[in-house]
Amino acid sequence: MDMTALHADPEFTAHLGADFARAVDAIGTLAFMDALTQAVRAIVPFDNAMLFAYKSGERPRGPYTDISDAAEARIVIDQYLLGPFLLDPFYSEVQQGRVDGLACLGDIAPDEFFASEYYEQHYRRTRITDEAGVFLALPDSAVLVYSVTRRHGSPVFAPADLAVLRGLAPLIAALTRRHWAGVDLGFGSQAGGDATPDPIAAALAALGETVLSQRQRQVVALVLKGHSTEAIALNLDISADTVKVHRRNAYAKLGISSQAELFAMFLDLLSRIVAPQT
User: Fold this and answer.
1) Is the residue at 161 inside a domain?
2) Domain span including residue 232
3) pTM for this predicted structure
């Protein structure tokens, strides 16, 4: 929405104030997340919102979504938490230390992400066409990402939409932090600590066991995340031709011939390594 409307339309401004006032009043109650989502949606239209919590060495939690259809929610939330999150650009941002601000999918995704098998198998199944997330850190070192999505063929967020969301990000983060600080999200509660510090490395080790070299595992990991041959070459400081040789040899050793087969094999291993949340 054009932010000049905030000055030109007093009625809109009054509604905006009332919406965020309801969110403030709802902090600490079960109504907060829906109230926050309603307030944000009144400014920038989107289809659905969701909240994920990430903490080092543990599988993420998905404490909120406003998706009402149970089958769709299972795909967007539950199946994501079983392992595909490891290839998610938003998760990668958290792993790289991001704790604040707004990021949109198009800005943080690898260069061939939209042609990757992960995108085909997760984003197309969830029917998410675009996503923007607000990052915020909690006192216990967990990082929350409040995401709003366009789905079901809706257009991607326009630059003006993202500008408004970026301006709102500090407010969204402050309210969300106030609500969730001190709430038990279930981290560290599993007896014996079944969390895997680096499940991607564990899955890749199991994928190739002693068959793949360290460099081949690195190449395969970047392929899975959606990096192009050229991007992998830059990342690993090797030539594009060398990347192609490593990928070809890795596929041959694994007995596969496509990224689709690699992704299926990877998810099968992740489902065994990353234990379902109880």
Assistant:
1) yes
2) 199-273
3) 0.77
